[in-house]
Write a structure and sequence with these properties.
There is one protein chain. By secondary structure, the chain is α+β, with helices and mostly antiparallel strands. It has a single domain, classed as Cation efflux protein, cytoplasmic domain (Alpha-Beta Plaits, 2-Layer Sandwich), CATH 3.30.70. It is built from 4 helices and 3 strands. Strands 1-2-3 form a 3-stranded mixed beta sheet. The termini are far apart. It comes from Streptomyces sparsogenes DSM 40356. Belongs to the asp23 family. This is Asp23/Gls24 family envelope stress response protein.
Length: 135
């Protein structure tokens, strides 16, 4: 009897379970360091800042948001600091940014976000936000 390899369109047999390995739940856990979660949160905050506060994400705008994270047993507490444009409804914009950051960080890391603290470093007028470095 001859056998032929399966072509790309044909279904193949599922892989055989590994012999001698413990069940997946007993093998271990994936650990994401605090600094990695913080970097993810800072990037997500930058995106939320440009979306919610109408701040362009280019180099001539405000300084990039910074973030710190504390991961404990499957949940994370985040602290984000950023600049916002003036005038703006600070409470509404901050609430939306906090929600965006919590949802996206949870989605990307699989961690439960228990708290997002947002600090507004500075309020920038249109003249300050457009001012960049001169070369």
């Amino acid at each position: 009897m001859k056998t032929r390899p399966a072509s790309p369109g044909e279904a193949s047999d599922p892989p055989a379970p590994a012999v001698g390995l413990p069940p997946p739940a007993e093998r271990g856990a994936t650990v994401i360091p605090d600094r990695v979660v913080a970097r993810i949160a800072a990037q997500v905050a930058r995106t939320a800042q440009s979306r919610r506060a109408a701040v362009p994400p280019d180099r001539g705008g405000p300084a990039a948001p910074s973030a710190s994270a504390t991961v404990r047993t499957g949940s994370v507490r985040l602290h984000v600091a950023m600049d916002l444009p003036y005038p703006t409804d600070i409470a509404r914009v901050c609430e939306r940014i906090q929600r965006d950051v919590a949802e996206r960080v949870a989605q990307l890391t699989g961690l439960r976000v228990s708290e997002v603290t947002l600090t507004v470093r500075r309020l920038l007028t249109a003249a300050e936000a457009g001012r960049g470095r001169v070369r």
